[in-house]
């Protein structure tokens, strides 16, 4: 998909950083940069349910572009949700007011795993793939478009619990007490996730991110034995598309070498480790994004900018740094804080690049 010659450095800044090439400014985008803190989004949300927004490609594409227009971030990320993939596997999906997501047919036994049939992403998640196509066309080369999926482990947690949970006890028990069924479930999820990421690339995504929101709850030994092979399988399939692959797990300082072993060209860093130490643990030859605490955007602007400056100073102009948060923008965030942060990161670099 051709966008024509770029006329703005933002058109290539993020992708150059992903490849650890020189950039004119530190690229910045924010997880959940399109969503509930933006008035433009809230206006749409007042008229449509969350699932309706995700499943209506023109609305999802419109939301995808909102922060690009408002804040001049260096990438768009398609507006979607990780859980419709489970619906496509036959588990169902509902969003219950005041409770959050609910999976009506959770996985609790080996027989439940056997009933799961992995179908092509074009059949089950075609609405998001069309949103990718529409957003890529509307961006017209201004900035790259990122696609994403939940990781096999995170999706397994929701599938087994039947929804969200503070620490996913049923999923962790399933992993330990039913290892064969666990492996069978993760193999199917890895196939579905890898196919979905590859399909987003074919639809026009110029980078993809694997979100492993709950992997940080595992020990290194548990991750190595029960998660790493399946994330690696999904990431290999995504990498076949030839675009940068971002691998992110929250609160995963103790897992960073294993995340690199699983795969990726860019690694997201939480706020449980300074970014320079995280980079040391990951080793050379990778790009790194993160790790500003999202709560920083809720306080005084000068305090937020001091923390942002600390991240930039620790990155020290090293090729491959992408500024981002340790997790998503919170709904209470003032959009003016986002604009101030982006402008600050885009200020002239502190050291030669």
Q: Top keywords for this entry?
A:
alpha/beta, two-stranded antiparallel sheet, 48% helix, 353 residues, TIM Barrel
Give your account of this protein's structure:
By secondary structure, the protein is α/β, with parallel strands linked by helices. It has one domain (10-345): Alpha-Beta Barrel (TIM Barrel). 48% of the residues lie in helices and 11% in strands. The chain is built from 17 helices and nine strands. The protein has helices at residues 10-18, 39-45, 50-55, 57-71, 84-88, 110-114, 121-124, 126-139, 152-161, 169-177, 179-203, 220-226, 228-239, 256-262, 275-282, 301-315, 335-345, and strands at 76-77, 94-96, 100-102, 145-150, 207-212, 245-249, 266-269, 287-292, 321-325. The strands form two sheets. Strands 1-4-5-6-7-8-9 form a seven-stranded parallel sheet, with helices on both faces. Strands 2-3 form a two-stranded antiparallel sheet. Strand 6 (245-249), helix 14 and strand 7 form a beta-alpha-beta unit. The radius of gyration is 19 Å and the shape is globular. The two termini are 30 Å apart.
N-to-C series of helices and strands: HHHHEHEEHHHEHHHEHHEHEHEHEH
Report the major sheet: 7 strands, parallel
Number of domains: 1
Number of strands: 9
The residue fraction in helices comes out at 40-55%
- Rg over C-alpha atoms, rounded to the nearest angstrom: 19 Å
**What is the averaged pLDDT score?**
94
- Tally of contiguous helical segments: 17
* General form: globular
> What is the CATH class designation?
Alpha Beta
**CATH topology grouping:** TIM Barrel
Measured distance between first and last alpha carbons:
30 Å
CATH structural architecture: Alpha-Beta Barrel
Secondary structure category: alpha/beta
Report the uncertain regions.
Answer: none
Strand order, sheet with most strands: 1-4-5-6-7-8-9
Strand content: 5-15%
């Amino acid at each position: 998909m051709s966008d024509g010659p770029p006329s703005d450095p933002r058109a290539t800044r993020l992708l150059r950083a992903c490849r650890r090439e020189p950039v004119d400014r530190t690229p910045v985008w924010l997880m959940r940069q399109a969503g509930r803190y933006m008035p433009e989004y809230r206006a749409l949300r007042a008229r449509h349910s969350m699932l309706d927004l995700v499943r209506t490609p023109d609305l999802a594409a419109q939301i995808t572009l909102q922060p690009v227009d408002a804040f001049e971030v260096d990438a768009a990320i398609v507006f979607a949700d990780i859980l419709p993939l489970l619906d496509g596997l036959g588990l169902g999906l509902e969003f219950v007011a005041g409770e959050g997501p609910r999976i009506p047919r959770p996985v609790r036994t080996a027989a439940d795993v056997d009933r799961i049939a992995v179908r092509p992403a074009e059949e089950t998640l075609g609405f998001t793939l069309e949103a990718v196509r529409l957003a890529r066309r509307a961006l017209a080369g201004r900035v790259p478009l990122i696609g994403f999926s939940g990781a096999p482990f995170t999706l397994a947690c929701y599938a087994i619990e039947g929804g969200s949970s503070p620490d996913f006890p049923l999923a962790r028990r399933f992993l330990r007490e039913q290892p064969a069924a666990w492996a069978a479930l993760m193999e199917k999820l890895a196939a579905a996730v890898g196919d979905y990421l590859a399909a987003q690339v074919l639809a026009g995504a110029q980078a993809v991110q694997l979100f492993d929101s709950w992997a940080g709850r595992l020990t290194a030994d548990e991750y190595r034995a029960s998660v790493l092979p399946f994330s690696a399988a999904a990431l290999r399939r995504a990498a076949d598309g030839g675009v940068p692959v971002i691998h992110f797990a929250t609160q995963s300082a103790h897992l960073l070498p294993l995340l690199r072993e699983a795969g990726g060209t860019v690694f997201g860093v939480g706020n449980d480790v300074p970014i320079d130490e995280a980079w040391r643990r990951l080793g050379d030859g990778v790009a790194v994004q993160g790790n500003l605490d999202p709560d920083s955007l809720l306080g005084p602007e000068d305090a937020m900018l001091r923390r942002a400056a600390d991240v930039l100073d620790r990155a020290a102009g090293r090729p491959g740094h992408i500024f981002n948060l340790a997790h998503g923008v919170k709904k209470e965030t003032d959009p003016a804080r986002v604009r101030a942060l982006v402008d600050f990161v885009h200020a002239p670099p502190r050291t030669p690049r």
